[in-house]
Amino acid sequence: MTRYASNDISDEQVEVQLILDTVRDHYQWMNVGYLNRVYRSVACSVHFDIKDGKIWLQQNLTDRNPAEELVAMGVPKEDIVLGLQPPYKPQVISCPIKCP
After folding, report:
1. Which CATH number fits the domain 2-81, given the four candidates 3.30.559.10, 3.40.190.10, 3.30.310.110, 3.40.50.720?
2. Is the distance from CB of 85 to CB of 91 less than 8 angstroms?
3. What's the pTM?
């Protein structure tokens, strides 16, 4: 999460916030501030939860694929839940990068 947020562009009007709740297993990368000094913006770029031993990808507004990166780091595909997809869609994690 820290690596993802470190590439974010922020300025004096928009703050990058990492919310890492290791007690309840909620992890978010937020952007909080004002756009063009007028419009209030509170945006969640990435949100993970750990529930019942599985990593739930709840939100991903980046051009990267964190599920693929988790698999490449050794997390089994069956331990990743794509919570950002509706339940009727299949849980498919493709892996164009080199995965085990």
Report:
1. 3.30.310.110
2. yes
3. 0.76
